[in-house]
């Protein structure tokens, strides 16, 4: 089992992973407020790949997870009362962390977050930040058990089409 930077060859499997999450949510319960065909998509993954920020988890050639790790803080982050001081270039941000439904509950989310922390540290980042939808109970629980502090919540107008309240978390590296 490994987590590594994604390649062009991974894009179809990443898109299939996103679809597997949508298929699972069609059966309930719903833990994301994403929209099939709009976000996340293969184009979302391709943009992150081209930016060098897409990473995948795989075992025996099968992708079980995907995440985008960069320093991009959404404008709404400015409304959050962050408690760990850091200049913008010192902040690593986790986006769109996904675990395939068949791999859920096996500690893979923890592994992916640990990988992100290690990678961000190696890039000179001093703090890791992320946001998750207030209704994503598994993710909200995971981040607190991994030592993240909930810094606040605010309404986001994500991608210009999703109005949502997101909880924002941070952790010193």
Can you characterise this structure?
- With 173 residues, this protein is of the alpha+beta class.
- The protein has one domain: Gcn5-related N-acetyltransferase (GNAT) (Aminopeptidase).
- Helix content is 29%, strand content 32%.
- The protein is built from 4 helices and 7 strands; from the N terminus they run βααβββαβαββ.
- The protein has helices at residues 11-27, 42-50, 108-122, 137-145, and strands at residues 2-5, 54-59, 62-70, 91-99, 127-133, 149-158, 162-172.
- It has a 7-stranded mixed sheet.
- α3 (108-122) links the parallel β4 (91-99) and β5.
CATH architecture: 3-Layer(aba) Sandwich
Order of helices and strands: EHHEEEHEHEE
Biggest β-sheet description: 7 strands, mixed
Briefly note the CATH topology name: Aminopeptidase
Fraction of residues in H or I helices: 25-40%
CATH class, please?
Alpha Beta
- Unreliable stretches (pLDDT < 50, length at least 5) are none
Q: Helical stretch count?
A: 4
Q: Helix/strand-derived class?
A: alpha+beta
The number of distinct β-strands equals: 7
Query: What is the first-to-last residue Cα distance?
Result: 24 Å
Radius of gyration: 15 Å
Strand order of the largest sheet: 1-2-3-4-5-7-6
Instruction: Give the averaged pLDDT, no decimals.
Output: 94
Q: CATH homologous superfamily, by name?
A: Gcn5-related N-acetyltransferase (GNAT)
Which percent band covers the strand fraction?
25-35%
